[in-house]
Amino acid sequence: MPVAPELISSRSPRVAAARRLARRNFRGKDRLFLAEGPQAVREAVAHRGGGTDTLVELFATVEAAERYADIVGDARDAGARVHLAAEEVIADISTTVTPQGLVGICRFLDTPFEEILRARPKLVAVLAHVRDPGNAGTVLRCADAAGAEAVVLTDASVDLYNPKAVRASVGSLFHLPVAVGVPVERAVEGLKEAGVRILAADGAGEDDLDDELDNGTMGGPTAWVFGNEAWGLPEETRVLADAVVRVPIHGKAESLNLATAAAVCLYASARAQRASGGCRSVTES
């Protein structure tokens, strides 16, 4: 016999509480955010922050609960409240055009910047004045894939828990420490004190990425600073870096977008560090 959904009205208090997390002020007040789709929910179930389970509540259509029975079962086992909901209810909570039937509510999981510094990271991505949530999430995903040990979002950057940023990270948000709201000057100062070389990525940089690799200067601990999508890095941020590096354009393209440039830079550092034995291999599982 088919199972009937438990929540069939968007007027339910539980649904209303979830729906409001699409807005930044409510996310900040409740310190909760939405994670949509099976990949994000699976990673949320597996993640524990400060000894506490990250996923606190899960909404699922009957079809999704059957299709992703392992995820729903793991969520229940981890202590999350699981609600079967009508498709229209899931659509009301979701911020996507085509919901995948699973929406989780998660606790904030950002890491204090001082804790990141104490870990003596070898590779860090710093997002300075990055405003587009899709770009922020994609850079976070690139940093995770390249084996970076932390990401820092400055105080002028987009909200880490914006639903579009969470989706664009494709689960990487749950994989590595992320500090938020750090003034760019403090981020650079703290990383330098921790022995990390600061490279600012800029299309008009004085130094060429190929030259940096050829000269063997990228094997040590490195933080890449990436700027705003439209205007890049302001001069007051550029002067804080140890070097301002451009990704060489060998073809006729005018430039690279932020996420693509970040992937190139982070993987270049990862390769240099692997060659020098400076950090773990990005191919390790």
Automatic annotation (TrEMBL):
The keyword Acyltransferase does not apply. GO terms for cellular component: cytoplasm. GO terms for molecular function: RNA binding; RNA methyltransferase activity. The keyword Mitochondrion does not apply. One of its GO terms (biological process) is methylation. Gene3D superfamilies: 3.30.1330.30, 3.40.1280.10. InterPro entries: Alpha/beta_knot_MTases, MRM3-like_sub_bind, Ribosomal_eL30-like_sf, rRNA_Methyltransferase, SpoU_MeTrfase, SpoU_subst-bd, tRNA_m1G_MTases_N. Keywords: Methyltransferase, Transferase. Residues 34-112 form the RNA 2-O ribose methyltransferase substrate binding domain. SMART domains: SpoU_sub_bind. It comes from the Bacteria. PANTHER family: RRNA METHYLTRANSFERASE 3, RRNA METHYLTRANSFERASE 3, MITOCHONDRIAL. Belongs to the class IV-like SAM-binding methyltransferase superfamily. RNA methyltransferase TrmH family. This is TrmH family RNA methyltransferase. It comes from Streptomyces sp. R21.
